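Support reply, case 0932

Customer input (verbatim):
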Amino acid sequence: MDWSILATLLIPPVAGTIIGYFTNDIAIKMLFRPYKPIYIGQRKLPFTPGLIPRNQERLAKKVSDTIMGSLLTPEELQNLARRLLKTERVKGAIQWLLHLAIDQIKSDTEQKTAKVLADVLQDLFTESLPRLLRVLARREDFLEEQINQIFDRILLEFQLSDTQARQLSDWFLRVALPPESIRQAIVEFLTDRNIQVLDESFREKSSGTVWVVANVFGLRNTLVRLRTFCLDEKNVANARLQELILSLEIRNRLRLWLQSLSLQNLPVSTVRQLRKTIRDTVRNYIKERGTDLLEELGESIDWHRIAVLLINRLQSSTTLTSSLGVISEELALILERYLEKDLEDIVAKAIPILSIDQVIIDRIKSTSPKELEQAIQGIVKSELQAIVNIGGVLGFVVGSFQTIIFLFR
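Our regenerated output:
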């Protein structure tokens, strides 16, 4: 076969293949390149920059509209939020945050947490509670039930034990009523006027043999001698009084009396009146002085020290650590109930705030053409290469048809 005829038969398929392959390859590259416009003088060359860089802003808007219109619709965002905010995930996140907060408190060397807690406690006792007390004190039934419960459960059932009665009786005889105090009380009581009144009353109201003794001897001389004895013989009088206390078993009698002392032994009407009196007294005091008492208490307490003690106690508390799971679960359930009710409104309000469409537009616009080409090539590289290969195949087919036509001629 003549080489010229062979070249005529082979050139169309080979040329078609080369033209089809490289034409598609150039067309695909012109989608991205050149990245910037090229100028000759004052005139810009056509098809510069590439198709995508030239329409990058419009492409960003189209991509954003497509994503927000078909992918990130409000319904899809609600479903996504429901999947993300399942109780188990929310519980784990809350528990992680609580552990993180505890670790932060433990590593707080400057005691910032203690300062904040101290300010909160001080405001609570010096500002918030007094204001709340002023409001509650205006009610007619203010503290009525609480004071009645304290009276019925504590005061009404209170009774001294044997040990308490013995200690209290010892205190009375040692501190409140020692022989010296009794002696002074006798001296102060036996004034001339009191002696005269006692003597006259004894003479007038006695009868029989006692009347004879009262009118013959009387009480005046006896009481005067007793007063003189207590004044002149202090130590002896104190000793006699001490002996009298021991011989009469005053300590034991006083102990038995204190031990039997109880409000339940009083008449019902007296107990009711006593309860009402105590309730009114406490309520009136709180109304008049309660706010001042709380304010003075709040100002006198070292809240910073208390806050430090509380935080140190919480840091080493095993109860707090073991209860974080329960607290996290309860908070997660509360959040779930809230989201079930208002998730649609939350998503509707969150979409404009998040501005997802604008984020997509800004991200695409801020991406350089080279990075955009690399991103698209990374996604559809095989598909773009297939287009180039198809161009070569089509060029080969067209060239082959030309060769066949030439042979038929």
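We compared this against your earlier run and they match. Two observations from our side: The chain has a mean pLDDT of 77. The chain is about 80% helix and 0% strand. Please reopen the case if you see a mismatch on your end.
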